Amino acid sequence: MTQKSPVKQGSRAASPRKASIRRQNQAVILAAAEDVFAERGYAGASMSEIARRADLPKANLHYYFGTKEELYRAVLDDILTAWRHDMDGFRSDADPKQAVSAYIRLKLDFSHRRASGSKVFANEIIHGASVLGDALGDLVRAGIAGKDKVVDEWVTKGLIAPVDGRHFFIMLWAMTQHYADFEVQIRKVLGKEALTEADWREIAIQVETFVLRALCLPV
Amino acid sequence: MTQKSPVKQGSRAASPRKASIRRQNQAVILAAAEDVFAERGYAGASMSEIARRADLPKANLHYYFGTKEELYRAVLDDILTAWRHDMDGFRSDADPKQAVSAYIRLKLDFSHRRASGSKVFANEIIHGASVLGDALGDLVRAGIAGKDKVVDEWVTKGLIAPVDGRHFFIMLWAMTQHYADFEVQIRKVLGKEALTEADWREIAIQVETFVLRALCLPV
DNA sequence: GTCTATATATCGATAGAC
DNA sequence: GTCTATCGATATATAGAC
Lengths: 219, 219
Known about the structure:
Two copies of one chain form a homodimer. By secondary structure, chain A is mainly alpha-helical.
């Protein structure tokens, strides 16, 4: 499957220049695909439009990723890998206020900077995670990584107001993703043509204040 | 465009039996379309699948709704009409705790009962509201209907903790919609095969408690 | 108002020259 | 590794018999 080269050459690692071309083209295609999948959905996105956006011939997409579904999987995998490293501030010996504040800002910032990726994921879940399938269970477990137990522990110790750890994370994810995924609607509510960096700072303050107060932590 | 009848007859109102057939077929098609659009997205939904789900020949869908886009608009219109009547508990002379509690339960219950409609709307917004277009501005204004000002007034009077009325509604919508739209993910987090009525009651309690505490209202 | 058969368009995927 | 030309499948939409 990988030995399509007409001329024999030791291995792929023996040609670092070509490997670099490969990596760069894949990155360009992934970025274009993430945007198009976010704007049009999986079925609505066409390989031709992704190719146009990546400024490459359509056949090259199939050369690098095989099928449309494989490309879609690669986009999902890319965003989920980036997400996995977000929860590290949650340890039972950490200060609740610090951990919660940092996590909200991290999530909001990430949703904002990689809005397309966030939207692709949202779409996948809304449509029943038919492509992720059973892998979603593992992803959720990896994403929450027992941190709900840390929250439950804080509750037991009386450090925060009583809340179910799992629902706490669901509500946090709901708020932080919503501002990115529903940006078009947010803009209408706030009466803004576009959201500036200052708007995003205000959003962070609003969410942070709301959540800290819900946990009876000092604002 | 509507005078396709081969035989002339007074008017459509003159034939109440046919008008009833018309209304019922339209309702069946709308319900099927709402489900399919929710599961597959606009582009991914096919007229044949909607027809199959409605147990009608595909040509009848075009007879009643013309094009796929018109059918989609009708589905959106249907769900938005139902939403418009949800905000009536919010009046400045109402008791904040009562109003907030009732609203959360109303929204959650609605998201749950009309999950497909909620998902269709979420999809439309995530993809930039390209079909709703400028109409979204009016819809948002009608949806919030100045109720953010009521919240601001409660803050000024010292009845609730300080919060921006617009962000308050955004966060409320985020949480209530998220539980319906992301149900697949919620189930994984909670470790449930399906969400029962008891689960939904627990969800309502969790969200209500969280929000009331964020406003420094008695739980 | 119902339904079969079909015209037309578009998309995903690949063959094959370079 | 790149790119043009094209195949085959599927979707929307409609014509026309009933």
